[in-house]
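Entry 12.
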Amino acid sequence: KLDEASKMFGKQINVAKYHKQWMIDAGFEDVVERVYRIPIGPWAKDPTLKELGKFELTHMQMSVESHTPALFTRVWNYSHDQVMVLMEGVKREFRSRELRLITSYRFITGRKPAEA
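Predicted 3D structure (tokens):
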């Protein structure tokens, strides 16, 4: 619902999947996309992923607070109290070890053409 609201607001936030094509369309060569899956929270068994998950949990909780209020009050006409309840529910789900949530980070690199 957040991405849909951002589209309706005219500022779509879920655009990472388009970055590679945008670079190709802009004329970059040898465009490569690397996608890394990161756990949200410290539930992973791998020590490195567990540490990344701790930081990602903090990042996601902060993101909820920065993106949700304006879009949900302006686009979906939620009250302040409704937004607060929604955000607490989302943050609770992020903290859940049972859900084992994962997010993806995309790193796109390319080379500027020699003649440019």
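Annotation: The helical segments are 2-9, 19-25, 47-74, 80-95. The radius of gyration is 18 Å.
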